[in-house]
Amino acid sequence: MTTTTKAPAPQPLQADKLCKTYGKQSVLQDLDLTFEPGCIYGLIGRNGAGKTTLLGILSGQNFATGGRALYGGQPVWENSAVLGNLHFARELSAASELSGLSVKNFMRAGRLFCPYWDQDYADELIKKFELPNKMINRLSRGQMSMVSITAALASRAPVTLLDEPTAGLDVVVRERFYRILLEEYQRTGRTFVISTHIIEEAASVFEKVVILDEGKVVADQNTEDLVAQFRYISGPAAELDAALAEQDIMPLQTQVLGGHKMVAVRGEDALFEKLAARDGLTVEGMNLQNVFVALCGHGDEEG
Amino acid sequence: MRNLVRYFGLTFLQFLGVVVAFVVLVLLGVRYTPLSLFEGYVYMMPTMGLWLAPMTLAGCHATMALPTYFGVRRRDSFLGMQILAVVMELCTLILAVTATSLISTWHTDWDIVMIPASIPVVLASSLVVIELSLLAQYLPRGAKQRTASVLMVFIIIVLTSSISLGVFKALDLPMPFFPIHVLRPGWAVFTLVCAAAAVILGVVTWHFYRKVVIRT
Amino acid sequence: MKGTLNDQSLIYRQIAQLLEDGILRGEYPADTQVPSTNELARAFNINPATAAKGINRLVEEGLLYKRRGIGMFVAPGAAEALRQKRREDFAKTQVRAFVREAKRLGLTQQELYSLVKAQAQEEQLP
């Protein structure tokens, strides 16, 4: 039995007016965000929204061009007191700087440098994921993800950030991953922040969700509270337009099919009750993926 | 950090293994075979300090990146990297001195001996090469290519110079630079200049390394 | 596995619904224990906080009570209270949708009543 130092309770991880520019391009602008301790967060956003950059800066793997990243009130950058509490599991690829290493050496470094590393747990996960001891660039995409996930979980870091952990994993392995994640969460109460494109599948795992759009935070709240604010309203175009005008609502998305129209709308329960009361209109709920597209699709009109 | 020592220790031991194996092989070859192949390698020994360690370190950025990935401060891993380089280099040089003096006791006509007093000179100059090869890895793309080419040219020069030593010997030409002794004024100045250059290059490397982001 | 949970309505509501159905069906009689937050989270692969929200909904409505250190139990009279609540919901949402559909189909009130009566007799409503 290898000795494991018990990890402390997680603390808030905060982005304080974070800015990041690459040359002329501004990826993050004045971003304020706090990841509360002990929650599982989903971080969703379109490609290029700045998710990876944000996670990189918050974990000290990247530096901010403005503002700061704070853990428990302390700056993260190059701060050895804090860095041991954070882990950023990235998407490994064959082009990665780390891909020339073997799985074994990779994990060995984890054991050496992560203060709360649990080798027994790492061994268990390597067995469960059936990871061979090859060079990382010789693994399949799914196996690379599993290496990244294994190191992230075995690090036992109080705050763990995962960037697209399910890339390349088939649906069976993805479900296994969510299960393993939830088990670890129930065991330790660690903070997890998971960025993903596979939104709907993972939505039930996220207690809270942060939506990033073009370097800005568009939503940051309990997942179901957010989803509850949105509805699809459909019906004859004339009636729908009249209803919307009467309630003074701007739809987020519109879809037209002949004389029939469907819109995505944000509001309170009372509003939706009123709309549902109208005979010609149908009011339906949305799921997280629908909400995301409505908020970040920028009002694409179809039909 | 003790863990950094353990981590780099593995890299060091691997390097040491290779150098020791090389030296032992050449020694055995020189001792027990009349093959002039090994003569050529012997001529390389004094100068191998100039390219062995740098070339090994030139391909090490995965090894350097890993501590950062797992939350080690860049300052700590940079320091560890520097210490590793110096230790690797010293071991190479000590082996070169030992090997060449051993050979000279077997073949008294060979005077391509590396004397201990040469160590500071070669160390200082090799550190310049080492810092350059480290710097090359952390420069932005364009500068990186140029530095890497400079490095390649330099290494080729060093390798050919060790071969030309053999040529000089064969042709019995006088060699004004030998013996390389740190206290000879020319070499002393050279050593100091190299040391200064190494320090400057080290600082420049740190400037780029302190904000390095691992590419994935 | 996600099992019976779908993405058509909020998960915590589905959890609450699940437990309510169980209470109504008599699976969880008064003063018996319902599955815990962790058990529900594990069974459906969901966040325990979401499962907890569903359970808390029922606690707020007085259908469940907590016994410290042990778990959540069905309150006495919960089944009856649920039946009452469901009746109100039934009238508001399902009957409304039903009648609107009938309207769309052009049924008269009389035709509607006879359809309902025929079905009720078939189901042997008392």
Q: In brief, what are we looking at here?
A:
Chain A is of the alpha/beta class. Chain A has 11 helices and 15 strands. The relative contact order of chain A is 0.14.
Structure description:
- The complex is a heterotrimer of chains A (303), B (216) and C (126).
- Chain A is of the alpha/beta class and 303 residues long.
- Chain A has 2 domains: 13-225, P-loop containing nucleotide triphosphate hydrolases (Rossmann fold, 3-Layer(aba) Sandwich); 228-302, 2-Layer Sandwich (Alpha-Beta Plaits), CATH 3.30.70.
- Helix content of chain A is 35%, strand content 29%.
- The mean pLDDT of chain A is 93.
- With 216 residues, chain B is an all-alpha fold.
- Chain B is 79% helix and 0% strand.
- In chain C, α1 (11-25) crosses α3 and α2 crosses α3 (48-60).
- Chain C has 126 residues and is mainly α.
- A two-stranded antiparallel ribbon of chain C has the order 1-2.
- Classes of the chains: A alpha/beta (303), B mainly alpha (216), C mainly alpha (126).
- At the A-B interface, β6 and α3 of A face α1, α3 and α4 of B.
Primary descriptors:
heterotrimer, A: Rossmann fold, Alpha-Beta Plaits, 2 domains, 11 helices, 15 strands, 29% strand, B: mainly alpha, 79% helix, globular
Uncertain stretches of 5 or more adjacent residues of chain C: none
H/I helix tally of chain C: 5
CATH class of the largest domain in chain C: Mainly Alpha
Termini separation of chain B comes to 26 Å
- Count of helices of chain B? 7
Strand order of the largest sheet of chain C: 1-2
Describe the sheet with the most strands of chain B.
Answer: none
Structural class category of chain B:
mainly alpha
Question: What general outline of chain B do the C-alpha atoms trace?
Answer: globular
Class by SSE composition of chain C: mainly alpha
Total strands of chain B: the figure is: 0
Whole-number tally of structural domains of chain C: 2
Q: Approximately how much beta-strand content do the residues of chain B carry?
A: under 5%
Number of domains of chain B: 1
The outline of chain C comes out as elongated
